Amino acid sequence: MKKALILDYKIGNITSVGTFLRENGYSVTLGCETTEIKNAELLVLPGVGSFKMAADNLQDKKIIHELKSRHLNNKATLGICLGFQILTKTSSESPDSNGLGIFNGTTTRLKEFSRIGWGKLIFNQKINSLKDHYFYFNHSYGSYDIIDTSMRACSGQSDYNALVASGSTIGVQFHPERSQKSGNKFLKWLESEVWGLND
Amino acid sequence: MIKRIAATLILDSNQIINAYNFEVHLPVGKLKYTLERLQEFEVDEINILNTSHSNSVVNDLDKLLEDINNWHVSTPLAYGGGISTLTDAVYVIKSGVERVIISANTFFDFDLFSDICRTLGDQAIILHLPIEFKGGSPSIRGYSNKLLSDVNALIPINWGGEIMLTIVESDGKKFPNWQNIGDALGIMAGHSNFILAGGFADFKDISAGLSLDQVSAISIGNYLHRVEHSIIEIKQKIKSSIQIRR
Amino acid sequence: MTMNQRIEQCVRCLYKTNHPFGLTLDKNGVCSGCLVHEEKDLLDWKMRLGMLKNLTDSYKLKQSKNYDCIVPVSGGQDSFFIVHTVIHELGLNPLLVNFNRNFNSAVGIKNLSQLRTIFPADFRQFTINPIISRKVIRTTLANLGTINWLWIAGQTSLPVRIADELKIPLIIWGAHQGIEQVGMYSHTDEVEMTSRYRKEHDLMGIDEKEIFKFDPDFNPNDISSLTYPSDDQIIKNGTRGIYLSNYLRWDPVQQHTFVKDKYGYIGRKTNRTYYDFDNPDCPVYNGLQDYLKFMRLGYAKVTDQLVRDIRHKRIDKESAKRIESEYLNKAPDSLKGFADWLGISVKNFGPLMLSLDSNFLEQLLSGDWRSEINELDKPNLNHIDSVYKFIDSDFKNFGKGI
Amino acid sequence: MKYCLNCLQPDTRPSTEFLDGICPACNFVNNSQVWDLQVRTETLKKIVKEFTNKVNGPYDSILGISGGKDSTRLAIWARDFLGLNPLLVSVTYPPQQLTKQGADNLNNLTEMGFDVYTTSPSPIIWKKLMKKSFLENGNWAKSTELALFAGVPQIAIEMGIELILWGENPALQLGASETIGKTGWDGNQLRNMNTLSGMSTEWLTSIGFSEEYFIPYFYPSREEFEDNKIQIVFLGWAMRTWGLLENGVVASLNGLSSRNASAFESSDLIGLTSVDEDWVILNQMIKYYKYGFGRATDYVNEWIRKGKITRDEGVELVVKFDGVCSDKYILTFCEFISITKNKFWEIIYSHTNKDLFKIEQGTRPVRKFEVGVDFE
User: Fold this and answer.
1) In a structure prediction context, what are the per-residue pLDDT tens digits for chain C, which is 402 residues long?
2) Contacts of B162 in chain A (CB under 8 A)
């Protein structure tokens, strides 16, 4: 049974992310202890709440250091929606808070104000196992300027980053835990193609 | 963005009901069983309207969340019913529901409405406007003095949320009243991202609705419970030119 | 109505808001069942029969070399009226389908044999392995307080499977219980068969895929005959179930006199019920099953019959209330026969009844909760089937009589 | 009419060719040895394995049953010896035709722990066909036999179950050579049984119902068999003890009820054959008047071949019981298809073999030949 840790930044309900992970074969805990962050086979940054709340709860130097070392050691990490934005350097949603800066880019207000609904992923490389799957988006902020990463994808006609992969750290602007069967397929794909995690 | 086929589930005393012009409520069953099937039919999202809300949104929601959470709902949800304070709205989002449905009377308290938008972000809000056509121009149900044209002026132009337009007179019927829909959308020409509801059952009407530029989703009510695989059938029969998740 | 349900009774009939199907009251306190029932005297039923005929004629055309439709039947009264309507009113060639209850009353065997003989229609019957059915019934008795779960699971899935196997898309059912009892839909909604309704209302929320929760050492193959076809199969075959009660003015009392005189249908008097024509084919439906229903829900089959009569204006609410209170506490008959079939003695039902007893505490405090069960083991309570024994000789149908 | 030298089978049975005086059944029994049985059992197990490996549903096979001695025996053997999980399928008679023992025996078999799926053609149409085939060729069962044989393969095709289990190869027991398949166990030639061939649609629809009312009477075509990879397998061929008496003994020990009538009324010597229906008795009587041998001869021939009785002892039994049929069966039959007794006998006389029987109005035909002695 693979172990997953949902990073606790004391904001929204993580039940749906928890259920999503459990259904896909993980035992799930919620926490932010450095040892937990170190040992988790998969770390998930959930996507509920505002950038300011998340940033304020991630000031502890040791936690930031542990998160960055996970990135350097290529340990599987998934940032969902807000969880993806907190991995960037800053967000115009609350200019005086700063994110983890693991992704070399910023988060800004979307050109089309908000994006609600289902969209496909258009990758910058040939990934056909996800080609006819749709994923659920619900956000009004996103990042346009992360370019120096191995894999990227945008969705539909818009050009903000729907998905960014830097080593084993993945940021997704959509909600896999709210994308029904496609969400499960996406997690399986990450496990086998990106993280090499499947047992 | 592609268009969406949504489901409206109307609750009365903790059970789903069939609603007929916002008055007659007939019992259908518990939320859990319908949620389970709608998810298997891959409905795009589910809008839950609680008509018998108590004065405490927190108690109402806790009862429903048992059904929703312990039964692996992985479908985008929206919840509305008695949300009249910022804490109510925040609680709805914090409990894992994607969007909160704000009723007209909460919207008329404009400071509260902008607080909610600022705190949660426009994309987490659906403004529910039930429209009545009592002779002359359309008004908000229950507020004959609040004309749709006045309400339209209050909504900021680049507002990021969505507006659920329900034609009261078509509620529970087999066909929507296209005349009323045309008038309402005309008055609100400055906005788009509308969710149309009320009388949507036949796939031709649903195709027609989704073909309108201002419309991004159709939300189906009573018809869902009447016919097996209604969602799957609709998605198969809808004009292929319409971009939906198939 | 606030969220912490206060149980209220409809001002016109006997149903309360804790009805398992759900029940809403309008601002005058009239329940959804009574409201929808008013349609029976408002709708143009000649026109609705015409609508039904158009629908079934389209299937008759398509099914030229095959059966036109499937009609689920049993030894009960509705089957006679449904088959009469399907053959003589709609001019169809149906395949009759029955999931065989492993313990049939003599009257049930006679009625089903009569039905199969007088109508020109082929008949298919499925009998589940009795060793398995005893196991399922023990499980649902212990966990859901019901005997009938197995038969309903079979009778609501077998026709849908046969529809798929024989490529007969149309299934015609009689009454939609949800509408007839609590007015779930308007008749004009023409609601159709759905697996959601089957699981939630027919099977008390637990379908054949989840029954294992109660009894882990079930082998899935044992109850394969209860499986409902998959969505893909149903869509591919275009299977559809419609209800006659949406198109005909459904009145079981009137229908009973019709099928009794015209087709020789027989009812079965029992201790606990006011009319004798409801579900006579199952020896325990109006006996132990009804007693357990009363313990679980506080009302019983007699209530359903009286509500029907109130709405059809055959009785006023006060007299109905009086009759209901007379029958509710009557002891269930045919207990011995069912206990024999299950391979136990009547006293073995004691702990189950205790577990469902609303005054569980008083029973325990009395230190002698067994006395009530001994009351139920009286010979006179088991005379019912012996009265109908004469039937056995002239009609025999495969299916155990008890 | 010539008798088989070994048993009492006359050569009057349609499509039976004797080989230098010996009937096909005796020939088959003569050249099959006991060791051969071991080979047959292993062959059968191998064949069955092919089907059980690729099964996805709950049942790996279908067994056609009536609840009688053969099907009770087969159900137990298939489950306990071959380890199969068969669905039992029965084509049942109209309620008035089914006997009390018939219903009890179906219950008995179910109670042993089997799922049972019955298909029953409409009694109204069944009765009209019975009357028509009785009046036209003196054999009421010619039409209903179609449904009895067609029901099982129809359901096998509907449910996608390829393996059909059957009891005996008619060629072996009754000397019907037209159903000899590729090997002893292959039952796919059952379609050639003389009762199944030669029944046109026009013949059926002449009773006043359109073709769609006769679905149970159409035996699936050869193509349908091939498309659905249906394979009928005779189990009796590989069972160490298979026969009228052996099956009767085992089935009775497992709860089978017997016919409550003596052999003097039914010519059913041990009272265990076709217990679920009585008018087969008068059909056997008609067979006797047509071909000079009835049910008693079938019993006797099997016992002669198994050395249980001598040919002469067989003659004694045949003389006493062949063609026997109590009036009570004739009365209920006439009432069921609503004809008078005189009309019944008129039909019997018209089909009686005048060379073998003397006919006098008002009495039953009298045998001219001596049982066991060739007769011109």
Assistant:
1) 334 568 999 999 999 999 999 999 999 999 999 999 999 999 999 999 999 999 999 999 999 889 999 999 998 999 999 999 999 999 999 999 999 988 888 888 889 999 999 999 999 999 999 999 999 999 999 889 999 999 999 999 999 999 999 999 999 999 999 999 999 999 999 999 999 999 999 999 999 998 887 777 778 888 999 999 999 999 999 999 999 999 999 999 999 999 999 999 998 888 898 888 899 888 899 999 999 999 999 999 999 999 999 999 999 999 999 999 999 988 888 888 888 888 888 888 888 888 888 888 887 787 777 777 777 777 666 666 666 655 544 445 555 554
2) 116
Asked if the C-beta of B64 comes within 8 angstroms of chain A's C-beta atoms, the answer is no
Closest-CA residue of C relative to D56 is C221
Per-residue pLDDT tens over the stretch B195-233: 999 999 999 999 999 999 999 999 999 998 999 999 999
Q: Is A175 a residue of the active site?
A: yes
Q: Which residues of C touch B225 (CB under 8 A)?
A: 185, 191, 194, 196
> What are the two backbone dihedrals, phi and then psi, of residue A49, each rounded to the nearest 5 degrees?
110, -175
Which residues sit opposite B50 in a β-bridge? B11
User: Neighbouring chains of A at 3+ CB pairs within 8 Å?
Assistant: B
pLDDT of residue C387: 61
Is there a single domain that holds both residue C240 and residue C316?
no
Q: Read off the DSSP letter of residue D214.
A: G
- C297, C364: one domain: yes
Structure ipTM:
0.86
Question: Is C141 inside a domain boundary?
Answer: yes
- Angle, helices A15-23 vs A180-189, to 10°: value is 60
Residue of C nearest to B232 (CA): C235
Alpha helices by DSSP H, listed for chain D, are 24-30, 34-53, 69-76, 100-111, 123-137, 141-159, 170-174, 201-205, 222-227, 244-253, 263-266, 280-291, 295-305, 311-321, 327-336, 341-351
Q: Chain D: nearest CA to C296, how far in angstroms?
A: 31
CB neighbour list of residue C83: distance below 8 Å, 6 or more residues apart: C71, C73, C94, C96, C115, C119, C121
Give B193's contacts in chain A (Cβ within 8 Å): 116
**Which CATH number characterizes residue A118's domain?**
3.40.50.880
Residue C353 counted as domain residue: yes
From A81, A139, A154, A191, the catalytic residue: A81
pLDDT digits (tens, 9 = 90+) for C105-116: 888 888 999 999
C143 and C289 fall within a common domain: no
Task: Please indicate, yes or no, whether residues C145 and C83 belong to a single structural domain of this protein.
Answer: yes
Using a threshold of 3 CB pairs under 8 A, tell whether chains B and D touch: no
Are C306 and C201 part of one and the same domain?
A: no
Question: Are C181 and C75 in a shared domain?
Answer: yes
3-state secondary structure of C203: coil
| C288, C239: one domain | no
Select the residue from B43, B68, B123 to test the A interface by mutation, using most A Cβ atoms within 10 A: B123
Residue C360 sits in which domain range?
283-397
For residue A177, indicate whether it is catalytic.
Answer: yes
Per the domain annotation, does C343 fall within a domain?
A: yes
**Annotated catalytic residue A32:** no
Q: List all chains that touch chain C, counting a touch as 3 or more CB pairs closer than 8 Å.
A: B, D
What is the pTM for the complete model shown? 0.89
Write down the pLDDT at residue D368. 92
D80/A106 Cα distance (integer angstroms): 72
What is the residue extent of each domain of chain B? Answer: 4-237
Segments forming the whole domain that contains residue A154: 2-195
Domain count, chain C: 2
CATH 3.20.20.70 fits B4-237, yes or no: yes
Name residues of chain B where pLDDT drops below 70.
1, 69-71
Q: Count of domains in chain A?
A: 1
Q: Which residues of C touch D58 (CB under 8 A)?
A: 220-222, 224-225
Torsions phi, psi for C377 (to 5 deg): -95, 40
DSSP D140-155: THHHHHHHHHHHHHHH
Q: With 0-12 CB in 10 A as exposed, 13-18 as middle and 19+ as buried, what is D340?
A: exposed
C240, C289: one domain: no
